[in-house]
């Protein structure tokens, strides 16, 4: 049996562990803490322990489980809340109380729950790994597809249906190496990528219902987004909004080293919120991984792998997944802390030299993919990773390594946040490299005018920032009316379009249809005042027309009343401007 | 049971001693150290190996030597006794009474490194705490179970504000028990006296537990102090159903002690020499605020920190801001103008505000009013710097009204007397007084219904 010879924080060194293998899970000390072998040297093994090691002494035992760190997969994952190594926090609470005591474990998925299994293959069918064998209605929103384990090949010799637990055998398969019994429960090592047949180029946007994102910086299904920003700039609110309203089928939310109360907020609000498409509670499609900042740091390192492995499993069923990682900086810090305890040679700012590789490996697990196995199907994983750069300065290693691999960048801006311009995504610094790939989709599915209106609005905003500099020098009054009109429209775009309240019943979700209507209204106003200015009217006369308020109030209008409101707003603007022209 | 004493100390470096010959010291185990002249110190194991234990000493290492110093391992991690009796008492950083009163007698003996609250057990904080201070109640609302630090600078009146909050804070409910846990880390005796007098004057002393580590006391105790204080607070909140307000001052001193130990251990330093694990370490303090489902008590934290050089990007405020649920930022510029409390609302934030305000809690229009004030004040401040360049004359009429608004906001809304306890209604009324100086069409954050219902526009 192995014995501990050194303890330093989450890092434990042991010697003489039988059958030790790299990355195997071990049980450490009399308390049976969970750990993972991360370095081997002769008969010595260095272990990162996923729980607090206070009181652990040299001489205590260490045993290997012989398996790498794995997630358990099967029906019952949805609606769960797990810690970084997939311990179910709700079940842990029943046994260990309100505080997480050490050494507690519980099965990640309920072994007793009965699921109504419906086979879609029959006796005698030849099957291959990845093939869908049957389905289970997991929640009212999601049908769980039971897939054959990878690398399996054979013929079904027996298959049942009806109420089964995840450990009941539902099929017997005769293979070259004899008979295999299949259960709905499977395991997957978290650090191993679940491969796919091939990856597809991005072509469909992930519709988020957030105007600044959908219109200006859209992300494709299967894409990657970096959201860096200083504290208080609204990273978490953006992530929450996306997990609420994005049109992915499943959301995996990884709270990685962040606040406990934020997880509570999701747990209390999601069951009450309705999915905009189906009207069902949002929790029915959500899986939470909560490893808050004060929970053990090694489990924080594991949490994003646990999250992405679960996401890959559902992707393999053919679903679109949105994975939120809040925050990857805390994950990187966990990596740094463990690296420091291992006395590795530090790279930039003390982060290990492999930080960039680990980050890009993680983001590479995203994508829009063709799944291996029958029937043919596509699934996607979109990763939205929050980054918390120290002091908001994104020249630091985590932000820089993230930006190298992600294709969308939402730059959160503290100065916008401090004037309560939310979402505080800076429209000048942010970018989306999917833009050109997605614009055709918008013009086909929403409106032909979308690409032109989009670029005109963007132009106005860019022009505004140039003009602001001129105003700083000469004052607003010195500008010609044509320029003043641009500033006027830019202000409307900023305040009435880009700003969106996350807490208003109507405004929190804005459909693409409503977005194009709003854009058209603003552009109509812009064209009309431009004409008036050309005719020689001054902005002073024009910009205070009462119908302008209609533009700012369109946010509050519900979808059903939108059409009539729009017509009414257009005619009031026309009438107001006609009146001005008539008076002169 | 007498613990074996070890005398083989191979190295003493800063606050660390290296003890040889130890076989089974537990990680984080407490140790007792007897110096050659009979003085007793305590310490904690930071790294343990077969035959070597690295011990961090609380207090100074002067007088220790490598032959006659005895180190005894206590066989347990740091624990303190807790009971109701802590209220009205004063302790040092290790939880030992320093007010000449009796030792605490209690069967309850708890570890000071508390286990993390299961996120599934937490209850979302949502009870509005009225502090009587407009900038907090109106724009950065504090709720019960929140951790809301004050980011200040040296010479700014953060202590006065903290004392005013402690004095005025109340909820709209009655019949609840309150307690204050006060943890002072490395503050001067003058500052300590200010708080003691404050507590005495208002009668808060009898329901306060005070943990005191002055700047002349051993700096290593500052590492233990907040954990001792919070363990006490947890007992009061979750076992005795008190609503506890924990004031921790000054977190900057805490972080400096952390850096001192880290450099003594020759760890790879992170930003500005602070250790890379400072975020995790701070979170084990701040995350101990909160509420637990099914329990009546709560812990609200009000940590105070002074930003070195008023720099909010310094690692101490920076990491704190990433953990806490917002921050109240004090401004030297307002202080110079004679504004008290000099709270700069723009960088300030309360993340839990939305849960604590609105219909049934404060008032339905609270969110809109706050947002409107924020954006109007931000616009006013921008114009202030613009008018400094191009002159006030070249501003438009509407711009001039914003300029006036910013001035009035500072002198009428932010400014209040030391003993002025404004109700939330008062605060909202003042807001409408100020906003109604601006054109009604600019009120884009306020819903139409609320403008009609509460507005003062003609």
Q: Biggest β-sheet of chain B: count, sense, barrel?
A: 8 strands, mixed
In terms of structural class, how would the helical and strand content of chain B be classed?
alpha/beta
Low-confidence stretches of chain B: none
| Rg of chain B, Cα atoms, Å | 25 Å
DSSP helical segment count of chain A: 16
Given helix and strand content, the structural type of chain A is alpha+beta
Of all protein chain pairs, which has the greatest interface, and how many residues does each chain bring to it? A-B, 84 and 87 residues
Number of strands of chain A: 26
Number of helices of chain B: 13
Instruction: Outline the biggest β-sheet of chain A.
Output: 10 strands, mixed
Radius of gyration of chain A: 28 Å
Structural description of this entry:
The complex is a heterodimer of chains A (584) and B (458). Chain A has 584 residues and is an alpha+beta fold. The mean pLDDT of chain A is 92. Chain B is built from 13 helices and 19 strands. Chain B has helices spanning 134-137, 158-168, 189-202, 221-239, 251-264, 278-286, 315-323, 332-336, 353-356, 366-390, 397-414, 424-435, 448-454, and strands spanning 5-6, 9-13, 16-20, 29-34, 40-49, 52-58, 70-77, 79-81, 89-91, 109-111, 128-129, 142-143, 150-152, 178-187, 208-214, 243-249, 298-306, 326-330, 343-350. An eight-stranded mixed beta sheet of chain B has the order 9-15-14-16-17-13-18-19, with helices on both faces. The model of chain B has no long low-confidence stretch (mean pLDDT 91). At the A-B interface, strand 1, helix 1, helix 4, helix 6 and helix 9 of A face strand 5, helix 6, helix 7, strand 19 and helix 10 of B. Strand 1 of chain A pairs antiparallel with strand 5 of chain B, so a sheet runs across the interface.
């Amino acid at each position: 049996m192995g014995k501990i010879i050194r303890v330093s924080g989450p890092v434990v060194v042991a010697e003489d562990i039988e059958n030790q293998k790299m990355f195997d899970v071990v049980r450490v000390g009399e308390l049976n803490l969970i750990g993972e072998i991360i370095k081997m040297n002769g008969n010595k093994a260095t272990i990162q322990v996923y729980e607090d090691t206070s009181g652990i002494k040299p001489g205590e035992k260490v045993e290997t489980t012989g398996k790498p760190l794995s997630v358990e997969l099967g029906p019952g994952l949805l609606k769960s809340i797990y810690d970084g190594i997939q311990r179910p926090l709700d079940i842990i609470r029943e046994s260990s109380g309100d505080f997480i005591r050490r050494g507690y474990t519980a099965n990640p998925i309920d072994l007793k729950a009965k699921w109504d299994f419906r086979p879609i293959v029959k006796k005698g069918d030849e099957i291959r790994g990845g093939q869908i064998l049957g389905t289970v209605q997991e929640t009212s929103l999601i049908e769980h597809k039971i897939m054959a384990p990878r690398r399996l090949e054979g013929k079904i010799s027996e298959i049942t249906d009806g109420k089964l637990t995840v450990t009941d055998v539902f099929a017997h398969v005769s293979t070259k190496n004899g008979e295999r019994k299949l259960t709905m429960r499977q395991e997957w090592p978290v650090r191993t990528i679940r491969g796919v047949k091939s990856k597809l180029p991005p072509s469909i946007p992930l519709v988020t219902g957030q105007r600044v994102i959908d219109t200006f910086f859209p992300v494709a299904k299967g894409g990657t987004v970096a959201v860096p920003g200083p504290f208080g700039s609204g990273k978490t609110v953006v992530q929450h909004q996306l997990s609420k309203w994005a049109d992915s089928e499943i959301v995996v939310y990884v709270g990685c080293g962040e606040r406990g109360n934020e997880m509570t907020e999701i747990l209390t609000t999601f069951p009450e919120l309705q999915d905009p498409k189906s009207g069902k509670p949002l929790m029915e499609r959500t899986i939470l991984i909560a490893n808050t900042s004060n929970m053990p740091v090694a489990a924080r390192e594991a949490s994003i792998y646990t999250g992405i492995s679960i996401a890959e499993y559902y992707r393999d069923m053919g679903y679109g997944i949105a994975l939120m990682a809040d925050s990857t900086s805390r994950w990187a810090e966990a990596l740094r802390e463990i690296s420091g305890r291992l006395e590795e040679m530090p790279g930039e700012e003390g982060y290990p030299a492999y930080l960039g590789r680990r980050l890009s490996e993680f983001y590479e697990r995203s994508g829009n993919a063709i799944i291996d196995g029958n029937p043919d199907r596509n699934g996607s994983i979109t990763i939205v990773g929050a980054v918390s750069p120290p002091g908001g300065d994104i020249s630091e290693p985590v932000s820089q390594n993230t930006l190298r691999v992600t294709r969308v960048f939402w730059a959160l801006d503290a100065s916008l946040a401090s004037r309560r311009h939310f979402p505080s995504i800076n429209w000048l610094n942010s970018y989306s490299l999917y833009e050109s790939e997605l614009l055709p989709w918008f013009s086909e599915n929403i409106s032909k005018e979308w690409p032109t209106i989009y670029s005109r609005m963007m132009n106005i905003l860019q022009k505004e920032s140039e003009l602001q500099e001129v105003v700083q020098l000469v004052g607003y009054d010195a500008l010609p009316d044509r320029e003043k009109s641009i500033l006027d429209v830019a202000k409307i775009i900023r305040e009435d379009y880009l700003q969106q309240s996350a807490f208003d019943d109507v405004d929190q979700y804005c459909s693409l249809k409503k977005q194009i209507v709003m854009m058209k209204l603003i552009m109509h106003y812009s064209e009309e005042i431009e004409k008036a200015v050309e005719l020689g009217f001054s902005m002073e006369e024009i910009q205070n027309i009462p119908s302008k308020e209609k533009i700012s109030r369109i946010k509050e209008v519900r979808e059903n009343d939108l059409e009539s409101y729009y017509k009414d707003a257009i005619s009031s603007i026309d009438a107001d401007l006609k009146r001005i022209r008539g008076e002169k | 049971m007498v613990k074996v004493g070890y005398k083989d100390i191979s190295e003493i470096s800063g606050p660390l001693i290296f003890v040889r010959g130890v076989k089974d010291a537990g990680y984080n185990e407490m140790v007792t150290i007897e110096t050659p002249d009979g003085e007793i110190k305590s310490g904690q194991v930071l790294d343990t190996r077969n035959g070597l234990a690295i011990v961090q000493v609380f207090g100074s290492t002067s007088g220790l030597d490598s032959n006659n110093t005895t180190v005894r391992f206590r066989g347990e991690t740091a624990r303190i006794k807790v009971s109701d009796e802590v209220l009205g008492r004063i302790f040092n950083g290790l939880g030992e009474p320093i007010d000449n009163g009796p030792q605490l007698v209690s069967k309850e003996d708890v570890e000071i490194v508390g286990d993390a609250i299961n996120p599934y057990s937490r209850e979302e904080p949502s009870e509005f705490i009225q502090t009587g201070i407009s900038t907090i109640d109106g724009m950065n609302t504090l709720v019960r179970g929140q951790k809301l630090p004050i980011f200040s600078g040296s010479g700014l009146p953060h202590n006065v504000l903290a004392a005013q909050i402690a004095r005025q804070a109340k909820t709209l409910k009655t019949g609840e028990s309150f307690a204050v846990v006060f943890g002072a880390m490395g503050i001067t005796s003058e500052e300590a006296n200010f708080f003691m007098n404050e507590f005495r004057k208002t009668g808060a002393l009898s329901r306060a537990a005070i943990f005191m580590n002055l700047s002349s006391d051993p700096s290593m105790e500052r590492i233990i102090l907040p954990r001792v204080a919070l363990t006490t607070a947890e007992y009061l909140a979750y076992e005795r159903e008190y609503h506890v307000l924990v004031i921790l001052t000054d977190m900057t001193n805490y972080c400096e002690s952390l850096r001192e130990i880290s450099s003594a251990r020759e760890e790879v330093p992170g930003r500005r020499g602070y250790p890379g694990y400072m975020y995790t370490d701070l979170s084990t303090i701040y995350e101990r605020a909160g509420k637990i489902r099914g329990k009546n008590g709560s812990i609200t934290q009000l940590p105070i920190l002074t930003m070195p050089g008023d720099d909010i990007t310094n690692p101490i405020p920076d990491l704190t801001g990433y953990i806490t649920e917002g921050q109240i930022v004090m401004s030297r510029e307002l202080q110079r103008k004679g504004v008290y409390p000099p709270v700069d609302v723009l960088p300030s934030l309360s993340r839990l505000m939305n849960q604590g305000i609105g219909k049934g809690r404060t008032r339905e229009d609270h969110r809109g009013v706050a947002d409107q004030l924020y954006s109007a004040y931000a616009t006013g401040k921008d114009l202030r710097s613009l008018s400094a360049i191009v002159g006030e004359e070249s501003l438009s009429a509407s711009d001039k009204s914003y300029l006036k608004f910013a001035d009035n906001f500072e002198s009428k809304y932010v400014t209040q007397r030391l003993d002025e306890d404004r109700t939330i209604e008062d605060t909202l009324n003042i807001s409408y007084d100020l906003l109604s100086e601006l054109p009604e069409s600019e009120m884009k954050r306020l819903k139409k219904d609320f403008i009609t219902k509460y507005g003062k526009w003609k």
